[in-house]
């Protein structure tokens, strides 16, 4: 495709070639590719501060331009952790709370991608810490998911969100709080931090599932142990809107270590006839 040499150079992180093209074809900063992105989008991911500033200055009107996903350069800087690019954009007036087509904000993306430094910058500049996406989930909900992020960084992200006013009991469209997300994800460190920050450990979602239901249904034994130790014992036999207990989910979904833990903690094996016999088998394993 003609006119996209600059984009290709930036996409390949070739700053020498980028500088050469900017000298001979500066008009390419306004060219769009098949994803409706301009050079500034790619620069937000790969460029150093000097190169990024040079591209932005060639056409400042592109500061908040969107690609076909609704991503602006600031959103991409948040995803990639290009803090210097994000700072330049914010200094030049970029929309700090712009949302993409799924209503994800720069704060959402910095959290999801584990970009602590960029997140800290956004929060210092006044970004909305409690923006909700199209599922009603706020950044703190996503901070309970730590699969691809080092645990220490994940904890730092969660703590800086709480320090900056994140709603510890905020609810998504299914009325699930960060504590319920943490229980489902088995993130015990996040759970302890949320409880310490005032999170409601007895919260239920629209199906009346509590944290024990969530942990048991996903097989998170250590999470169950933490919750049993920190909650009133009456929660062990709490029922959802279908009358099902955490033990029912543990048994029917094959999470037998969780079932054993619940039984040893006093769960009623006779609550539901369908799993009573199996419960007695589990307790003697």
Automatic annotation (TrEMBL):
SUPFAM superfamilies registered for this protein in UniProt: Ankyrin repeat (SSF48403)
Family matches, as Pfam families: Ank_2 (PF12796), Ank_4 (PF13637)
Highest taxon listed in the record's lineage: Eukaryota
The keyword Repeat is annotated on this UniProt entry: yes
Protein's UniProt keywords contain Transcription: no
This protein's UniProt keywords: ANK repeat, Repeat
ANK repeat ranges per the UniProt record: 69-101, 102-134, 135-173, 174-206, 242-274
Protein's name in the database: Ankyrin repeat, PH and SEC7 domain containing protein secG
Taxonomic path: Eukaryota, Metazoa, Ecdysozoa, Nematoda, Chromadorea
Name of the gene this protein is made from: secG
């Amino acid at each position: 495709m003609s006119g996209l040499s600059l984009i290709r150079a930036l996409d390949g992180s070739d700053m020498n070639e980028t500088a050469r093209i900017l000298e001979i074809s500066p008009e390419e900063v306004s060219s769009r590719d098949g994803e409706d992105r301009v050079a500034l989008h790619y620069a937000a991911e790969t460029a150093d501060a000097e190169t990024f500033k040079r591209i932005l200055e060639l056409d400042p009107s592109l500061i908040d331009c969107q690609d076909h996903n609704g991503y602006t350069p600031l959103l991409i800087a948040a995803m990639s952790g290009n803090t210097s690019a994000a700072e330049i954009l914010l200094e030049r007036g970029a929309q700090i709370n712009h949302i993409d087509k799924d209503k994800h904000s720069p704060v959402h993306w910095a959290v999801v991608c584990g970009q602590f430094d960029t997140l800290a910058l956004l929060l210092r500049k006044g970004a909305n810490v409690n923006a909700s996406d199209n599922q009603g989930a706020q950044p703190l909900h996503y901070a309970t998911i730590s699969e691809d992020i080092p645990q220490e960084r994940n904890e730092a992200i969660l703590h800086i969100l709480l320090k900056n006013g994140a709603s510890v009991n905020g609810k998504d469209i299914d009325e699930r709080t960060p504590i319920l997300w943490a229980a489902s994800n088995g993130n015990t460190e996040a759970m302890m931090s949320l409880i310490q920050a005032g999170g409601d450990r007895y919260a239920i979602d629209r199906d009346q599932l509590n944290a024990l239901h969530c942990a048991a249904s996903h097989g998170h034994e250590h999470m169950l142990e933490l919750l049993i130790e920190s909650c009133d014992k009456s929660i062990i036999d709490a029922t959802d809107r279908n009358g099902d207990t955490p033990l029912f989910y543990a048994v029917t979904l094959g999470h037998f270590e969780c079932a054993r833990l619940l039984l040893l903690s006093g769960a009623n094996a006779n609550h539901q006839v369908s799993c009573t016999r199996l419960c007695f088998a589990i307790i003697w394993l």
